[in-house]
Amino acid sequence: MKNLLFAVLAVVFAFVPVFLAQQDGTTSPITKVEVLEEGVYKYEGASKGFVTFDHNMHVAELDDDCSSCHEGEPAKIDVSNMSAGHGLCSGCHDQVEDMEACATCHSK
């Protein structure tokens, strides 16, 4: 009986790193689920809940300098997964040290 219990626990613990690696969210899809008002978008991620992005506020804060986020002519930006979203946002938000607090942008 001890051997069976040990074997079961060994198998369970062997899969914990695999499970955790899949939960890091870097390739988790992000989907735009709602337009709250013109220029304010709600995205849903697979692991950390919703992100609301206020394009209007960002435009005002950046004094209409679209080049901070858009290369060349403003066009749709790829935020189809967490890596893309964090890669884009962290350029500015790391400077204000709020990227470490998931709840700054994500809500359940």
Total number of distinct structural domains: 1
Q: Predict the CATH topology.
A: Cytochrome C3
Helix and strand run: HEEEHHE
The CATH architecture comes to Alpha-Beta Complex
Query: How large is the count of helical segments?
Result: 3
End-to-end Cα distance, whole Å, is 43 Å
Number of E-state strands? 4
Could you report the average pLDDT, rounded to the nearest whole number?
74
Question: Strand order across the biggest sheet?
Answer: 1-2-3-4
Shape type: elongated
User: What is the strand content?
Assistant: 15-25%
CATH class: Alpha Beta
Instruction: Sketch the major β-sheet.
Output: 4 strands, antiparallel
The radius of gyration is 19 Å
Name the poorly predicted regions. 18-23
Features of the shown structure:
108 residues; alpha+beta; 3 helices; Cytochrome C3
Describe the structure.
The protein is of the alpha+beta class. It has a single domain, classed as Cytochrome C3 (Alpha-Beta Complex). Helix content is 37%, strand content 19%. It is built from three helices and four strands; from the N terminus they run H-E-E-E-H-H-E. The chain has a four-stranded antiparallel β-sheet with strand order 1-2-3-4. The longest helix has 21 residues. The chain starts with a helix and ends with a strand.
